[in-house]
Amino acid sequence: RRAGGRPDRSGAVGAGASRAVGVGASAADDFERDLAEDVLSALGGREGGRVRRAVGDGRLAVDDGNVKPEQLPLLELARRCVPLGDAFLKCRAFCRGAARYERGRCAHAAAAKLREVLREYLVFVAQLETVVRSGKGGLARLAATCRDASVALDALVAACAAVDAAPAGGAVVDALADAARDAHDADAKRVLTSLAEAAAEHYIQSLRS
Fold this sequence. Notes:
- The chain is an all-alpha fold.
- The protein has helices at residues 30-43, 72-81, 83-98, 104-133, 139-165, 170-182, 186-208, and strands at residues 51-53, 60-62.
- It contains 7 helices and 2 strands, in the order αββαααααα.
């Protein structure tokens, strides 16, 4: 299955949007609805509304200006969601960097596979949008869903950093294989294994040529 349940296992990034359906969430007020829209933008790596890039580190952050005390818990829920958008942006940046010629065919193959994963992630975000806009899931459910998905994406971010630090060739395969072996989340392990296998295929081809 794709992002409506658990995404296709080659691109699994955590619990799917359907977990936000049928939870019996209370009707959201205008502030919560607007904030949820801002969070959805952040999940796609975009600024919007109260979500802006922080000065300094450039991470997505939630502005708490002109907020009533009773709205602070909603801001906290939003803050729990936006790191997922940062993780998506880091993975996307890795794909662009790994596509450079000097990174070699193993990194190219891993990046191509990761781009498939990120496409699945954007399907996941689109389905979350449908759930939220239909009134079937508020910020609390959105935060819970993002928490589940963040485990796999955080593992991918760490693997991308390891690959960036590795020289071209077999070291890329080793870095991804090590990340897959050490991953505790089942979705992360499956995705990282698929990246390692894609890189290994090109490495073996290079040895035979």
